[in-house]
Structures are given as C-alpha cells and as structure tokens.
Design brief:
The chain is of the alpha/beta class and about 400 residues long. It has two domains: about 1-150, ATPase, nucleotide binding domain (Nucleotidyltransferase, domain 5), CATH 3.30.420.40; about 200-385, Nucleotidyltransferase, domain 5 (2-Layer Sandwich), CATH 3.30.420. It has 15 helices and 14 strands. An eight-stranded mixed β-sheet has the order 5-4-3-2-1-6-8-7, with helices on both faces.
Amino acid sequence: MKILVINTGSSSIKYQLFEMEDHTVLAGGMVERIGEASSKITYKVYGENPQKTESNEVITDHKTGLLRVVSLLVDEKLGVIKDKSEVGAIGHRVVHGGEEFVKPAVIDDTVIKAIERNIPLAPLHNPSNIVGITVSREIFPNAKQVAVFDTAFHHTMPEKAYRYALPSDLYERYKIRRYGFHGTSHQFVSEAAASLLNRKLKDLNLITIHLGNGGSITAVKSGASIDTSMGMTPLEGLVMGTRSGDIDPAIPAFLTRNSEATIEDVDRMLNTRSGLKGICGKNDMREILAAADRGDKTSKLAVEMFCYRVKKYIGAYMAVLGRVDSLVFTAGIGEHSAEIRERICEDLEQIGIILDIDKNREKIQGNRELHSARSQVKILLIPTNEELKIALETHLLVSNDNI
Ligand code: ADP
C-alpha cells in the first residue's frame, strides 16, 4: 500500500509518499508561502533515479497546493504513481489531540469536530491541520484518512505531572494542563532505542531529547511517557529557536503593567522573538555556533543557556525515573551537533553519564551509541522520522480497520 503523509501549516504543506511494503519514501517535498504573491513548490523523487524540482508559482489556497502535489506525483516524467487512486491512505499530523485522543484515529466527521473542539488549545496549528484534512478528503474521496496526534504519546503521564498547581476549576472548565508535544518523535526514537539496545521497550527507562527548532525532553518509564517539558502549548520547557521555554509566570503580567505591550504582543514575543533568537538575534544553531567560535559574546551565552536548560531537565528526569538506561539525542541539533551533545553531557560523570568524545565526533549516518564503556547510562543518537512513524501508524489503523 502507498500512504501519503501530510503536515499542513497555516501557509504550507509538507508531504511524503511512502511505499509501505519496504517503508521507503517514493517522493516528498513542500508547498510554501500558500496565499502569498509567489508560492514555492519543492518536489523530490527518491530511490534509484533521484530527482528534484523547484518552482515558484501562484498557489492561492491549500486545495490548489495539494492538487499541484498530486499533479507532480502522477506526472509523466517526474511521477511515481500512475493515478491518485494508488494512494491507499493518508496520514495527517495533527498537533493537539487534547484529552480526547490518546492514539491515532481514522478520520470521520466526529473526529473532525473533536479536533475543532481543541482549537482553543492550539489556535495556530489545529485550524491548519483541519484545512489539510478537509482538502485531502475532497481530493482523495476513496482513501482512508488518519489523524496522528503530537500529544498522544504523552497521555500516560500521571496527574501529578500533567496538572499545573492552579485552581482546579481551571482544569475542569478550560482543560488547562500539560499535554506535551513531539510525541510521535519521542515514541519513534524510544522504539528505535529498544531495537538498538536489543531490549524490550517495556523494560527500558529513557530520557529522549528532541532538539530541533522546537525542543522537548521526555522521561520515558517502561516505554511510556511519564513527564515531558512542553506543556499546555509548545512554549514551555527548553530554550528553543524562537521560544523562551520556562520563565517566571509573573513576567507577562509585569510586561503588560509596565510597558506598552498588550497580552497578544507578549504572547507573540515569547513564541517568535525569544529563545536563542532573543538572546543572540539568530535561531539557526549552525550560525550561532560559528559566531560563538568567532568570539561573539551573545552567541556564546545563547549556547550556554540552551545546554544548561537541557542539563537541568536531565537531572530532574533522572530523579523522577530513578533508574535511567539511556539518553537518546534526536532532531536537527541533537543529531548533527557533536558540540552541543558534548556540552550537555559535560560534568555528568557523577550521575553516571559519560560520553565517548571520539565516538560523539564521528560523522556516521544512522542510529549509534555515543557512550564510553564506563558510562552507566548509555547515550544514543537516533535520527527521528516522524513522517515514517505517521505512515506506520496510519498503515496499522487502516489495515486493522479492513479486517
Ligand atoms: P524542526 O523543528 O523545524 O523540524 P529540525 O529538527 O530540522 O527542526 O532542526 C533544525 C535545527 O537544527 C536548526 O537550529 C539547525 O541550525 C540545526 N542544525 C542542523 N544541522 C546542524 C549542525 N550540523 N550543527 C548544529 N545545528 C544543526
């Protein structure tokens, strides 16, 4: 079966078409700047004869964008399928499943209504995800559609971890609580860690560290998430590209009282002008590390704050888990920056974490071990693959559904 995985943003669609027989990607890419004067389409064919095309076109809405993707997938020269009916199912990344979704769901009108009900919890993401679902139902009327939620993996957190110490009626009325995000990635790398270690996932305690543009860290006990750094929204926790992560909750009120800023301004500032960008003006870790190397003080501080926050969470989750079998680094920064991994693991010998500096610096693709033979806690590098995980979950659900 072929499965199309779609991740729809407010002005973008990321897509990958998988062949589920061998879990390979046939084609993939992105439609960007939908609705703007000039949109961009990237289309890549994988496999034996890889090809890539890019074009700037006017794409007025998501439906036009997805129709363009379909026209490329079936194109005589560049296509990987003859007809769109070859797409057996579509897996959608949906950011917020709230308390209603603890696992992926086959999409019907009831599921769409439930995703709509969760819009107040994810006003930037869920509306775009619904647009993606609606247009792909129109374009692929015969394919089953599945929603895979970023929050679902964290549904196993105990109440003491997911509740905030706020008046209880706020939880009851507004569902204000920790949900956690990047669940698909934390779950994918946990499962891959178990295979790499040749152990059963239910026997493992892990700390999974997803460091991309957004970042989060999860305590995984016996294979299940028991705490995670992101909260009701993806703003809480680690220092991220443009998000502040943890701050004193009194700061927004202070700012609205003592500056011209409205609460919307403060919210935007915390999400888009904070984190690494707020400290040093840049949010691409490669540029920041290069500037720090050249002696730029604010870049050095940004790197220090980034690593320090991860270190603090590792300590907290070591305490929460009791026994930790492995740390798992993943996502853009976690996978590619030996320097950041080194700084995070520095001086953690006393709590059983010892990186092998040479292994850490080797440039090898794929899953691998980075710890020294003396380390009690293993340290793994596992490239995440959220799209493949969404395809696998979709496949499982539509196959079961057909029985
Ligand atoms: P997203 O959260 O958008 O999916 P990614 O997981 O792709 O993000 O991670 C993006 C981040 O990874 C960027 O900050 C980028 O600078 C960083 N990154 C990618 N390659 C490297 C590298 N070789 N060294 C340091 N940082 C890197």
